[in-house]
Specification:
The protein is α+β, with helices and mostly antiparallel strands. The protein folds into 2 domains: about 130 residues, no CATH class; about 140 residues, Ribbon (Umud Fragment, subunit A). It has 7 helices and 15 strands. Strands 1-2-13-3-6 form a 5-stranded antiparallel β-sheet. A 4-stranded antiparallel β-sheet has the order 9-8-7-10, with no helix packed on it. A two-stranded antiparallel ribbon has the order 4-5. A hairpin with a 4-residue loop joins strand 4 and strand 5. It starts with 14 loop residues before the first helix and ends with a strand.
Length: about 290
């Protein structure tokens, strides 16, 4: 004989139940701490962890859902638009929404009557959030880095290993500042390279033999197109722990002497050390093709 379910059976916890468990766990940590905090302070801090959850705590679940959904949407936009203005706007929105939630939590659960104390509390919350977000952004930038190069934005995988790089792969690398003076009978001047990042394809790896001609650059018998300001003759072997990547950026120079010095500087820059490795370029970033 089957019985109908009891109308008093408690409903299963939904998404709010998970957030409440996180909030309660944080509160237990504070209560177990040897430093005693007020109940209001503990509730305020627990309401700051998830931006928008404080609205649920004060009795506005719909507003809380909207705020949390807006924050999640902004986080997604920040990821897909790394390096673009839209990504910066999304990051600013995330910080603003988190700040509003934190200020509301402390205003509700830690009421302060004096205006001076309110301002100090608000300033302290904003400073802590700004430092935390900028710190997370810097840490995130070491893992996934957006680089603007020749008018395009490339997202680079900073966790890639330099030891696994092969010929033909496109990588990002650090460029140190250089300043080379030249004086000849016909001209004098300087070639200046500012510090930054370079992106390019690995034409040769350590131990490869490179032969330069007017039409091509031959690496171990494989011919590559001759690029601007490459040597038109000569050969070399790539040293250990280095790659050969021909720099690709605009140079504004005049005169034969300047061209010779620029070519020598580019040749020096083309021998990229593994220590300058910044990451491998993703072939795709979400649905955006990069290579």
């Amino acid at each position: 004989m089957s019985a109908s379910p009891s109308p008093f059976y408690p409903p299963r916890a939904r998404g709010w139940g998970r957030l409440r468990r996180v909030s309660f766990a944080l509160q237990r940590v504070f209560y177990a701490s040897p430093v005693k905090f007020s109940d209001g302070f503990i509730k305020a801090v627990s309401g700051c962890i998830v931006p928008g959850y404080v609205f649920r705590m004060i009795g506005y679940p719909i507003v809380s859902r909207i705020a949390i959904s807006a924050y999640a949407t902004a986080a997604f936009l920040f990821l897909i638009a790394l390096g673009f203005p839209l990504g910066n706007y999304a990051f600013a929105f995330m910080l603003t929404l988190h700040a509003v939630s934190a200020l509301l939590a402390f205003r509700r659960f830690v009421p302060v009557e004096e205006l001076r104390q309110r301002l100090i509390t608000a300033a302290g919350i904003l400073v802590i959030l700004i430092i935390a977000y900028l710190g997370l952004q810097a840490l995130f930038g070491k893992v996934i880095t957006p680089l603007r190069y020749n008018g395009k934005v490339y997202v680079v995988n900073g966790l890639a290993s330099a030891n696994g790089i092969k010929q033909g792969e496109r990588i990002a690398y650090h460029i140190a500042s250089m300043d080379r003076q030249f004086h000849t009978a016909d001209a004098h001047g300087a070639v200046i390279v500012e510090e930054g990042f370079g992106l390019g394809a690995v034409l040769a790896v350590a131990g490869d033999k490179i032969v330069f001609t007017k039409e091509s650059c031959v690496v171990n018998g494989i011919s590559f197109p001759h690029q601007q300001r490459m040597p038109e003759s000569g050969e070399l072997v790539v040293p250990e722990n280095r790659w050969f990547i021909w720099p690709d950026f605009a140079i504004d120079m005049q005169g034969e002497a300047a061209e010779i010095q620029a070519g020598a500087m580019l040749m020096r820059m083309g021998m990229v050390s593994k220590e300058d490795f910044a990451g491998r370029i993703f072939r795709h970033w979400f649905w955006r093709k990069q290579l």
